[in-house]
């Protein structure tokens, strides 16, 4: 066959080549965006999975560290002192069967704040590791500072942990003195700890700094001990900060 008879293929038109180019660019854009979308979803799902695991771990940690078993029995010094005192208090044995736990009084209600309390509580582990609590009375050397620290904490947060169980407006004291004191506390937003600072555990004399802070809340020129020892209608003077039936 001669070369004259071979007809070369016609070149594609400009419109056809332009269409092919647009299709290719569209395909490249789709593949690129598809990979980006899939990558973003995978990244989001991984973050969601990690976040879920972290929330479960944090919640489990809070649950375990808030139990009476952990707070009261892990360390022998706690079991023989403050936990024993709790079991002998009216916060443990109540007519209604409501029993306060260690966490009810000493751990914040919200999860994030509770973890802060647990983290701060690890400082007690350092104290335990650097001191010999097997000696009789060794814990008593640390009790005043621990009590003072907790009192200031409860004074600063308006005794919010008391509200885990108690509703201030729902408390109905039997004595006139108690009724007046609670009405005044509600009207002036006085924290529970300002008056009830020797509940549940062994009595500890309040520090001067704490009494001064209480005076600021009371807004009067008398110390908290004076307010607590005001004679009631029976003529008796209850001990300052003592746990009593109002």
Brief characterization of the structure:
The chain is mainly alpha-helical and 246 residues long. The chain has helices at residues 14-65, 68-73, 76-79, 82-87, 102-106, 111-129, 143-156, 176-188, 208-218, 224-228.
What does this 3D model show about the protein?
This protein has 246 residues and is mainly alpha-helical. It folds into two domains: 43 residues; 157 residues, no CATH class. About 8% of the residues have low confidence.
Given as residue ranges, the uncertain stretches (5+ residues, pLDDT < 50) are 221-240
Radius of gyration, Cα only, in angstroms?
34 Å
User: Assembly type of the shown chains?
Assistant: single chain
Strand content: under 5%
Strand tally is 0
Structural class: mainly alpha
Major sheet details: none
How many domains in all?
A: 2
Descriptive key words:
mainly alpha; single chain; 2 domains; 10 helices; 0% strand; 246 residues
